[in-house]
Amino acid sequence: MRLLRAGEGAAAVAIAADAGIPGFGEGDDLRAALDRSGGRIELPDLPGMTGWCFGALISGRLVGVLYACTPVDFVLSHRGEQRAWLGRSVVEIEIVAVEAGCRVGGAGTALLGHAERFLGERGVELFVAKGDAGDMPVMRWYRHRGYRVADAGQSCLLETPAGATSIDAGPAHDRRWRLAIKAPGKSVVRGVRGLRLEPNPSA
């Protein structure tokens, strides 16, 4: 497991496209950014916001990719200290894709664990994934890896040093999407209005 290297964009995008991840084509912006920068992508005109792409390799061949990124729209909807904290503390996992022949070997799980450790060492405190509310296999996959899954349309309340805010999977009236949340060192608990983070009692 490692960050992608410059020039590996085509292989990464091909794996994502073969796995059915929508929006990938020959002229894809992510491919160009990966080819140019490797697995750490500075987002243009957005200081402090970053995309990260990790690869799983078998015998030196790329067989899986995970792309995580600052949730730009969410972060930009805040101001000042809260925006700065969210920008460095929250990432959204946008792509996890593994070649069909390697999916039963745990490459996706290993990629996710590697990304969580790597980004956690760099200050990330909250991992967010958003999925189709009807895609139970994906939601179950995250749940089995320590994520708490919100009900369709629900959000997660976050306490930041600059006050409380909520992250959601989309507009409140759109119940097609669900959040999966993991906050190492904290407990993600279910309340009446959705998820919230609490200090881990064992910490």
TrEMBL record:
Q: Does the keyword Transferase apply?
A: yes
PROSITE patterns given for it? GNAT
The segment(s) forming the N-acetyltransferase domain are 1-184
Q: Which InterPro entries match?
A: Acyl_CoA_acyltransferase (IPR016181), GNAT_dom (IPR000182)
Q: Which residues form a coiled coil?
A: none
MF terms in GO: acyltransferase activity, transferring groups other than amino-acyl groups
Q: What Pfam families has UniProt attached to this entry? A: Acetyltransf_1
Keywords (A to Z) from UniProt = Transferase
Would the keyword Thylakoid be found if you checked this record's keyword annotation? Answer: no
Protein name as it appears in the record:
N-acetyltransferase
